[in-house]
Amino acid sequence: MNQDSTLGKTPKTARGQKTREKLLRAAELEFGESGFHSVGINDITRRAGVALGTFYVYFESKEEIFRALVGYMSQRVRSWIAERLVDVPDRLAAEQRGLELFLEFVREHKGLYRIISEAEFVAHDAFVAHYTAFAGAYRENLEAAGRRGEIGAGNYEVWSWAIMGMAVFLGLRFAEWDDEAHPKEISTAVMDLIASGMGAKGS
Amino acid sequence: MNQDSTLGKTPKTARGQKTREKLLRAAELEFGESGFHSVGINDITRRAGVALGTFYVYFESKEEIFRALVGYMSQRVRSWIAERLVDVPDRLAAEQRGLELFLEFVREHKGLYRIISEAEFVAHDAFVAHYTAFAGAYRENLEAAGRRGEIGAGNYEVWSWAIMGMAVFLGLRFAEWDDEAHPKEISTAVMDLIASGMGAKGS
DNA sequence: ATGAAACATGAATCAAGATTCAACTTTGGG
DNA sequence: CCCAAAGTTGAATCTTGATTCATGTTTCAT
Question: How does DSSP classify residue A54?
Answer without folding.
Answer: G
